[in-house]
Amino acid sequence: MSALPADTEHEKHGVAALSVLMFLFMFVLAVFPGLKAVEGLTWGASVDFHRDASFVRAVVEGHYGEDPTYLGGSLWYTPMVGWLEALVVWISGLSVDQVLVQMGAYTNLLAPIAFFIMAWYFFGPVRAVVCSAVFLFFIIQQEPGWAVPTYSPRLIPVSFCQWFLYIELILIDRAFRTTRIGPSILAGAGAGISFLAHAAPALISVLIIFLFTMREVVAAVRRKEPSTGWPRFRASMAAGAAFILCSLPLTWIVVGQYGMKVVNRSYFLYNYYGLTLREAEVFFYHNVALINLVALAGLWLVFRRKVADTTGRREMGRWLVLMWFAIATVLMVYSYVVAVLDMNYGVQLPGILPPFHFYFYAKAALIVCAGLAIWECFVWVLKRVRPMLVGVEPSARLKPVVIVFALVAIASTLNYPSYATRRDVFAVRNRNLAFMERTNDGEACVRINAMLPWDAVILCDVELSIWPLLPSARKVVATTRTMGNPYLDQKDRDRDRDLLLLGMQAPRADTGPLLDAYSTTHLLVRPGDLASMPEATRWFPNEVFRDEEYVLLKR
Domain locations in the chain? Predict the structure, then answer.
């Protein structure tokens, strides 16, 4: 029998049902622009799509574990998104590129669902609705979806994989409520699976587990009862073992074959323009915004206010949000410093990921803080208008909940025209349509993939290595640094590619040996470039195909 009075229990269920309906209302509003953004698309203009297409084609063509860009290289990129895309290609029969450009509108719906579940689990249904409104409609503004945690119709790994962290936080809470091995193994496995999807949420999860473990072990030592810390330490060690086991499809290669030795550092030196002070106006436009100021106020409230509830979830949620934000912020600042020191002063500190990946997750924590701040502001006003509610929890009463949900619905509806035509939807769709028209639906890429064997190696300039070559999953002498394998030397490849292209313009003694060193089989150029490459037909005498934009020659 419930310990609550019947009317209170009835209201509790009513609040829960109303919260679900309110979330579904916002969810449906968010879906429509996303579906419209990908309608009819068959190709994506983003270089991230080109890179992902190469790894998907590696799986589809039976070459998992191999680098689709550099001959002899091995897998270096987190594979889970590629697995999912390859599975959809296999089931649906659609082309790789159509799946990539349309699938995100559906798979990325997991992000708001997981965020809502996480917020409900820790802070209750009403606060979860308010936080979800911020997540869906108010945090994105005009920033790209891959830089801000929200629902985005593009299947960029950082946008899709955020949901792993939200579910992992629940698993961590379950693990630290007991010293039994099972829940900790589940939390460790969740972090390991997250690592296969994206390194950032996995790293944040692992550090949270580590810090919580150290907190409990140190507390046991301070109590002069070190033996009481052993069960927690043992459970966390089991979590670590589960993490290692579940991450093996990637770590077996990057640790076992490459030894985690990064040679090409360009991958983690990219700085998102919204984070750099070189363009102060852009930085302030994206970061000094009302919702961010509300979020900082919420962060202060979360830091200052301990929460007492019968389940302990809200207090645990408070600590998790603080740790989540602190870890993401520290990693973001560190990664930013790594990039600045490397690019400006030649100082090479160990790198992790581009700073914006951690900026993304710091903002996700701030979204929770913003939602909590908005709710607390509503409660503060409500209790001054209705003093009889002092000492009552408004989130357990239907009338206050109906009022706050009505305000959220009005605010979301008023903001909706801007949201539905935001850059992440409107501008990106137009760019994809223009790309499809300009490339004749990727004809050159499709023909290169169809006509050339898996181990073909093409010589071309940097621009052509990105398009049409990169998504074709056919090898290249050298691509752009940010798309190259971080565990293989890029400087030598860049130099040798430039020497080989010079060798197409005039005789050079090193052309033949360099072509053989890279097992080069083809040359890809623009038709107008051949006039300045008299040596090209000497080394590549056979024409494979030609159109208005490209000529492919074969040795």
Answer: 8-424, 460-554
pLDDT in tens, 485-540: 999 989 999 999 999 999 999 999 999 999 999 999 999 999 999 989 999 999 99
**Residue of 264, 291, 355 whose CA lies nearest to 136:** 291
> How far is 133 from 48, CA to CA, in rounded Å?
28
Q: What SS3 state is found at 543?
A: strand
Q: Residue type at 191?
A: A
pLDDT value of residue 228: 77
Task: Give the separation between CA 151 and CA 27, rounded to whole angstroms.
Answer: 9
How far, CA to CA in Å, does 242 sit from each of 192, 209, 470, 521? Answer: 7, 13, 35, 44
Q: Which residues contact 348 (CB under 8 A, 6 or more apart)?
A: 265, 341, 342
- CA pair distance 368, 479, nearest whole angstrom: 40
How far is residue 9's CA from residue 251's CA, in Å, rounded to a whole number?
Answer: 49
User: Would you say the C-alpha torsion 481, 484, 485, 489 has a positive or negative sign?
Assistant: negative
Backbone angles phi, psi at 545, to 5 degrees: -155, 160
- pTM confidence score: 0.94
Which single residue is written with the structure tokens 């709710």? 375
Helix (H, G, I), strand (E, B) or coil at 338: helix
**Collapsing DSSP states into helix, strand and coil, what is residue 484?**
coil
- Mean pLDDT (the chain, rounded): 92
Say which residue, 7 or 459, is predicted with more confidence.
459
The Cβ of residue 116 has, within 10 Å, a number of other Cβ atoms equal to 24
Given a contact cutoff of 8 angstroms between Cβ atoms, the answer to whether 208 and 155 are in contact is: no
Which of 151, 113, 130 lies closest to 295 in space, CA to CA? 130
Pairing of strands 551-554, 522-525: antiparallel
Read off the pLDDT of residues 125-168 as tens digits, 9 standing for 90 and up: 999 999 999 999 998 877 888 889 999 999 999 999 999 999 99
Q: What was the pLDDT predicted at 13?
A: 87
pLDDT for position 2: 42
Name the one residue in this structure whose structure tokens are 């436009």.
285
CA angle in degrees (0–180, nearest 5) for 447-448-449: 90
Average pLDDT over residues 540-546: 94
Query: What distance in Å separates the CA atoms of residue 288 and residue 23, rounded to the nearest whole number?
Result: 28
Give the single-character DSSP code of 350: P
Q: How far is CA 82 from its chain centroid?
A: 13
Cα(403)–Cα(407) distance, rounded to whole angstroms?
6
